[in-house]
Fold this protein.
Amino acid sequence: MENNKLSQYLLKDLAIKDKIIHNRLVLAPMAGLGHIALRQLISEFGGFGLLFTGMCSAKAVPYENPKVSPVFNWRQKELEYLVCQIFGSEPESMAKAAVRIEKEGFFGVDLNFGCSVAAICKKGSGAALLKDPDLSSKIVKSVRESVSIPVFVKFRLGWDNDPQFAVDMARRFEDAGADALTFHPRIAPDRRNRPPLWDVITLVRQAVKIPVFGNGNLFLAEDGIKMIEQTSCHGLSVGRMAVARPWLFAQWTKKFSPGEDIFYTTAVRLAQILLDHYTDHFSVKLFKKFSPYFCANFKFGHHILKKLNRAQTMDDIKNNLDSIFESTPATLLRPNLNLFL
């Protein structure tokens, strides 16, 4: 499968419940990175099927004010392709959050059973729910019975390297009413220090009738081609690489060719958009979350990251970017994974 075949495959329609998406390349649900500014930046390049919000607390969502919430906020025009990602550990609160999400007009709701960060798992949310298959199934069922929009579930291999467990969970989620799955084939304690087990995506894909999006180490178009050929997944879910290169969707599906100044112009544009949505202080915080992924593109990325992280204000960040790109830094084809936190 060559690159044009990749785009041909990704641009085939896909039914998710009673909705159709016209592009099977989607942004992965992430924590702290899928905020309104990054989504707007990706939207300006285009080339995706769906975008996902950052992680929203199910307990907070029914009472959130989008005008002040840093996470539960959106641009009106993105709702038609935006899925709201929630985390929680109780069927009732997850269902209440889903009701609010449907009322606001989102494309769908995504239930996070994949986040392995200690603070989330300690509350019994995220990947911790994979330790309680009955409860996680009840959550999916409760949400499904409360809304008519598509219900997505993102989950991992589990807490042990047991492919059969992932297959069983996929079937449970489908039986409980999930309309699509995003599967990340790593065990929960694995903070990406081992490669994802793509073979398990194949098993999950074969076990259910609903769409399965493959996730994990999709860096270049050739990785997307390999994943589709190897696993027959219905679509590709790109996370960290979409932060590092927000034009990736356009590159893989629209034959967009980035120019030499793409890194500089993209970073400057993100800085501008952040200030459209957040205070200077919070914009700096979010830019610094973006920086390691961005710097992973460069041969001397650690050095560039140190320079960016010295910034105290958004003006500092812009000045630092101007200084860094006075001479064009050498780039890498594949990112430096030591910077992919």
Q: What stands out?
A: The chain has a mean pLDDT of 95. The two ends are 31 Å apart (CA to CA).
